[in-house]
Amino acid sequence: GGRGWEFSASMIRTCLGVLRRPHTRGFSGAQLGLNGAGAGQSTRGVHALHTERPSENSDSGYEAELKLQDLLMRGKIRDAMQSYMLSKTYGMYPSAGTYRSMVSGSLAAGFSEFAIETIHDMYLIGYKPPFEVLKLITSKIEAKALASGVLKILRTKEIKDLAGAMTAVHPDFFNDTLNLLVHRSKITRDILGELLREMGRNKVDLHMSSMTTVAQFFALSHDRLALKKFVEELSRQSTVLPPQTIATALKGLAVSGFALETVQMLKLWDSNKERILQLMKLEAPDEDEAMILEEFKQATNLDQSRMEKLTLDLGTLHECIHSASRYHLEDLAMIFWGLLEKSYPINGTTAPIDVFIAVAYVKAAQGKIGETFKWLRKLEACGHKPDLRDIRQVVSILSLKNAGKQIEKPLISRVQSVLDLNLVMAVLVRSGHASRAIALYDEAVTLRQRVKPNVETMDIMLLTSLTAKGTRRAFSLCQLVVADMEIYDLLPQTETLRLLCLNLVKLGRVSQALNILEKASELRRPIGTWSVLYVGRAAFFQKETDVMQRVEDLMAKLR
């Protein structure tokens, strides 16, 4: 009776074959050719699909996958690896889900090289690994070991498998791994250099996104020689350099203050112009190229009849101008200004505010007072309202370039607007001419002979005087400004207001400090309770009962 429950191996195989046929899921033969994805590489694939058992004692494809899954579930990773390698030699590959299990299992067991090879196999047979799988190898494997595993695949590609096909390499695998290593800060310059050299030797092309990623890496690490060499090497190859890559290289060199290298890079950009334009004529560029070319077309306005114009994006130009000025490289700054003038013609309100600020900064860096005022007035005439931070940058460099000079008269003679007054007052105070600043302020504002004040002018004057190392002249100017603000019913910005209250308390003017806080409260400014308590503490020590009562009332309102 018991023998009736025994099943032969052939019966089991028959039942499994009826339930799920091998060709619907599981191991299947796969040709190893890259179908053009290898960017010029050609490899002979396994032309026969090995769906039949290779010998009488071996399993069919689907049963082999069941066996592999069973080994993985039981934690027998080494046996699973051997089973997979044996099946792979006959051109049989598991499903994508089993691949993911093999990667995670082999990593957990410490077989990192096998995990790397397994992911590469996924690329070869058309299973694009999801980001989570790629992230596993970059997070679980130390960068040097990961690079070593990747290089091993490159260096063994000439080995033939049992079916006689050359072992292929898939460029997407190397590009994706490279991008992940760089973005996750898990790579050094030496490792990156070795990877790039080996990829070049094996003719594995960098994708356009990878070019920009590598350029960013060298730029952020301030390795200007490696950056320059990398971009020049790309330009000598048959590939077309994407605009983002050269823009990244330009920024990386310019913000580090390397004038000669930056100018050379500009020439390199110009020499690649024809290649970029030729690529635009291709009938079917791939998705990445099409996206980049569309951006380049918008940036250079290729619909114009003249094509000789060299164009960089505004952000790059702005950064380059600022950095060149910061390192006192006026000649380089003016080269960028010339490019900016060609690329972004300044015609009325169409010009971005950054253009005006950038040019004013360059003129200030050259110490040219008149030219600086000229560009700031253009900015004002177009209705742009500059940020105080930008004005302070212009003020700082103009003051630095004119330090020790008698600049009061040239400055004062140019005051024609509120913006001029704002600039002049700050430059005078920062250049050590506080007494002349007070006289000019009295002449221009109190007597109202030239301009009427606004809150921005008052604010920058207050901030400048309050941060002038506590000199008596600065405090005098501060008092004058505060009095005028009360007259014109103006209130400084919140941060300046807090700083002003602290200084008024230090000067013993507790009631005046509280007046400002009360007015700010009425205007619903976020003054905070700390400033009020600071004034109340000073009133307590000075025994000013009226002020203490007002402090209590104000605290009640704030609560």
Please give the structural blueprint:
Layout: H1 9-19, E1 28-29, H2 61-73, H3 77-89, E2 92-93, H4 96-108, H5 112-124, H6 131-140, H7 143-155, H8 171-183, H9 189-201, H10 208-220, H11 224-236, H12 243-254, H13 259-271, H14 273-280, H15 287-300, H16 314-326, H17 330-343, H18 353-365, H19 369-381, H20 388-401, H21 408-412, H22 418-430, H23 434-446, H24 455-466, H25 472-487, H26 494-506, H27 510-522, H28 529-541, H29 545-558
Helix pairs in contact: 2-3, 2-4, 4-5, 4-6, 5-7, 7-9, 8-10, 10-11, 10-12, 11-12, 12-13, 12-16, 16-17, 16-18, 17-18, 18-19, 18-20, 20-22, 22-23, 22-24, 23-25, 24-25, 24-26, 26-27, 26-28, 27-28, 27-29, 28-29
Proportion of beta-strand residues: under 5%
DSSP summary, beta strand count: 2
Spatially, the strands of the biggest sheet line up as: 1-2
Derived from helix and strand composition plus strand pairing, the structural class reads: mainly alpha
Q: Radius of gyration, Cα only, in angstroms?
A: 36 Å
* Relative helix content: 55-70%
What's the N-to-C terminus distance?
90 Å
Shape: elongated
Mean pLDDT: 67
Reported for the largest beta sheet, the result is: 2 strands, antiparallel
Uncertain segments are: 1-59, 159-166, 279-290, 295-310
Query: Helical stretch count?
Result: 29
Organism: Rhodosorus marinus
Region (Disordered): 38-60
Keywords: Repeat
GO molecular function: mRNA binding
